[in-house]
Amino acid sequence: MVRANPFSVSTARGVSVLRALDMQRPEQHRLAADPYAPHFVNPLTVLATRAALATGTLRLIGFETMINFALARERLIGELMDQEATAGIGQIVILGAGFDTRAYRLADGAGIPVFEVDHPVTQHAKRTAIAGVVEPLPGNVRFVAVDFDRDDLGARLHDAGYRVDLRTLFVWQGVIMYLTPAGIDATLGVVATHAAAGSIVVFDYMYARLKRRMAGPSPLRLFTQLVGEQMSFAIDPQDLGPFLAARGFEMVESIDGEMLQRRYAGRLQGRPVERDAAIAVARVAG
Fold first, then answer.
1. Computed from CA positions of residues 22, 25, 29, 30, in that sequence, does the dihedral angle turn out positive or negative?
2. What is the model's pLDDT at position 234?
3. What kind of fold does domain 8-284 have according to CATH?
4. CB-based contacts of 168: which residues, under 8 Å, 6+ apart?
5. Cβ atoms of residues 248 and 222 within 8 Å
6. 188: nearest Cα among 256, 103, 250, 254
7. Per-residue pLDDT at 286
8. Maximum Cα interatomic distance, the chain, rounded to a whole number of Å
9. What are the residue ranges spanned by the domains of the chain?
10. SS3 for the chain, per residue?
11. How far, in Å, CA of 230 to CA of 248, rounded?
12. Per-residue pLDDT of the chain (286 residues; tens, 9 = 90+)
């Protein structure tokens, strides 16, 4: 499951910094346009991040490719959410929602239940932050506070109105790399046993060589240690299909950094995307 870590508030706001920074680019160059993001972050942090990018500092220490991957990931998963909403998905579950606001901007999604699942500490911070900013809060959004060390995810979703008979999209973004194998199996087990056949889970993951790059001293590793997050899980793309099949899923596709670079070339304007990470889309076997 998602680890119960109050420091996740810090990493959740960190992604909001990237979205707020993206809002400062011309519209045609934005990957993760989020008009709410600037309200969740310190503008000085955004300014400092922008300066570090402009001077090449973040490229030098290995941050820039990860930043661009994160932004491209935001766009690709947002597009998938919109596509599924238009196609008539029954409900959406966002696992580890953080400060994500895509549920409030979902195309053709006004009547689709969206369950935002997160640790109570992070969710309280998010609900406080959006008060007075997201007005009115869409009636289809349902907050599900889950302490994954103590609570049953399936039961909490059921209590919030989740239906096991509807085709569902599970968004599991920026989470799996922080989990233990047991935690990953537990979460995928809930999805596989509590979702209708044809339901989809989308998640990002890092390759084993990226984990090896981070095994020694590195700025990224230092940052995750400071905020209480440890990147521990990695899997190579050739192993992902069998990994998912053993857990009740059919692999749909894996979109790597090179594919993201080509897909969003016009918006990236030559900015490099991390090559040792990817986004997986899998379907619940029926």
1. positive
2. 94
3. Rossmann fold (3.40.50)
4. 89, 90, 91, 92, 93, 195, 196, 199, 200
5. no
6. 250
7. 78
8. 52
9. 8-284
10. CCCCCCCHHHHHHHHHHHHHHHCCCCHHHCCCCCCCHHHHCCHHHHHHHHHHHHCCHHHHCCCHHHHHHHHHHHHHHHHHHHHHHHHCCCEEEEECCCCCCHHHHCCCCCCCCEEEEECHHHHHHHHHHHCCCCCCCCCCEEEEECCCCCCCHHHHHHHCCCCCCCCEEEEECCCHHHCCHHHHHHHHHHHHHCCCCCCEEEEEEECHHHHHHCCCCCHHHHHHHHCCCCCCCCCCHHHHHHHHHCCCEEEEEEEEHHHHHHHCHHHHCCCCCCCCEEEEEEEECC
11. 27
12. 334 443 345 667 788 999 999 999 999 999 998 999 999 998 999 999 999 999 998 888 788 999 999 999 999 999 999 999 999 999 999 999 999 999 998 876 668 999 999 999 999 999 999 998 998 888 899 999 998 778 899 999 999 999 999 999 999 999 898 888 888 999 999 999 999 999 999 999 999 988 888 766 666 555 555 444 567 899 999 999 999 999 999 999 999 999 999 999 999 999 999 999 999 999 999 7
Token pair listed for 152 = 């049953």
Structure tokens at 117: 């699942």
Tokens of 111: 């009547």
